[in-house]
TrEMBL record:
The keyword Endoplasmic reticulum does not apply. GO terms for molecular function: kinase activity. It comes from Rhizobium lusitanum. Keywords: Kinase, Transferase. This is Adenylate kinase family enzyme. SUPFAM superfamilies: P-loop containing nucleoside triphosphate hydrolases. Gene3D superfamilies: P-loop containing nucleotide triphosphate hydrolases. InterPro entries: Cytidylate_Kinase-2, P-loop_NTPase. It comes from the Bacteria.
Length: 197
């Protein structure tokens, strides 16, 4: 059975219509959620639609070639520099840098898909990119799926959602948040954003 936290736990939760209006006006958007949920694809579509710089935490901050993690201090320095830019969409969840990212964020999209869908998303992505590096990953990080990664996805909601909610309350209490809980909602949002303002 899926464990979720009630939407009212977020102080500034918005619906799809309101979200579309706010995204059109936003200069800086944070997209977060579990691996395999579709946040990178969504981020890139919104970046293209509104001319925002696309920043991938995985590609631009976290990983060096060969799945080597960048030093934590260097990661933080990169994020500090990137969030000072005027227009961006940042794809990545890590709550440990919410203190830097959320005060600069105009809008948050929380891609909160069911875990089975995220597992399927990760596996199908691995099949599609097998033996290659996908564009939103650091060079030399060949697409992979292992039990550790699948366990991370399976337990993401229970482990990370409380941290996300606490981080939003502490560092972005006035930042509006849209939760997307199905592919249908994601398609609806993109449809709304594709219409003339």
């Amino acid at each position: 059975m899926e464990q979720t936290v009630a939407p009212q736990a977020l102080s500034h939760a918005v619906d799809l219509e309101e979200a579309a209006t706010l995204i059109r006006r936003a200069n800086r958007i944070l997209v977060m959620g579990c691996s395999g949920g579709g946040k990178s694809t969504l981020s890139q579509k919104i970046a293209t639609r509104f001319g925002l710089a696309y920043v991938s935490i995985d590609r631009d901050v976290l990983w060096l070639p060969g799945w080597v993690q960048r030093d934590k201090e260097e990661q933080r320095a990169i994020i500090v520099a990137r969030v000072q830019e005027e227009r961006w969409i940042l794809d990545g969840t890590n709550p440990s840098t919410f203190d830097v990212r959320l005060p600069r964020t105009d809008f948050v999209i929380w891609v909160r898909m069911p875990r089975l869908l995220c597992v399927w998303g990760a596996i199908s992505r691995w099949i599609k990119w097998m033996g290659r590096t996908r564009p939103e990953m650091a060079p030399g990080c060949i697409e992979k799926v292992d039990w550790e990664f699948l366990h991370f996805i399976w337990t993401f909601e229970e482990k990370f959602s409380p941290k996300v909610i606490a981080g939003l309350a502490q560092h972005g209490p006035n930042v509006p948040v849209l939760q997307l809980k199905s592919r249908g909602e994601m398609r609806q949002l993109l449809d709304l954003l594709g219409r003339p303002a």
